[in-house]
Please model this.
Amino acid sequence: MEEISCRVIQDILPLYVDEVVSSDTKLLVREHLEKCESCRRDAENMRRNIGAADLENFEREQAETLKNLKRSLKQKRIKTAVISVILAVVLASAVYCVLLLPTWYVPYDEEHIKVFEEDGNVYVEYRDIEISGYYSIETEKPSADGDMKTIRIIYFKQNLWSRYVEPLLSKESQVRYCLGEANDLQSVYYGEVPLKRGNGIDSYENAISKVITDSAPIWER
Ligand SMILES: [Zn+2]
Model:
C-alpha cells in the first residue's frame, strides 16, 4: 500500500477521531499514526479537545437542569404558599364563626358585676369574667319629684372565645364603664334587651319595661 501523505491524514483526522470513517480508512489512518509522530500528536490533541468540549456540554446541561429544577421548585413553593394562605384564611374564618359569632346573655351575678358611685359618676365594674360585649340602653322615667330621670339597662354577653379562651390569656381582669353622672341617673337595671329595633319599636319598648318591672334595680339613687 502506498504511503499516504500527512496532508491527507490531516484532512481525515477529525472524522477519524469522531469515529465516523469506514473501517478501511480507520486502518489506513491507524497505520499512519503508528509511524508518524506529528499526526499522532495531532490526533491526541483532537481527542483531548473533543473530551473537553463534551465535558463543557455536560456541565452546561447540568447547569440547565439545575436551573430548571430550581425554577420548578420555586413555582412549587409559590403554589404551596398560596394554598397555605387560602387554608389559613378558611381556618381563621371557621374559628371566627365558631368562637366569636354565637353569643349569649351573661346573667347578673353580684359577686362579679358591681355598680357604684364615684366622684359624681356611676360606674359598672366587672371582674374575673371576660365578656364579648357590653350593652347599655338608656330610657327615661319620671322620678318622685316629677323630673324626668335617666334609667340605664345594662347587660353583658359572652361567646366561646371570651368564656373559655380569654381567661387563659389574661390573668386578672377588671373593667369598668361609666354609666353617666350620678345626678342624672335614677336607677340601673341589669337585663337583656334585644338591640334590633327591626322587630318593631313595641317589642323593644316592651322588653325595656319588662326588665324594669320584672327585676329590681342593681343600683338606685
Ligand atoms: Zn503524518
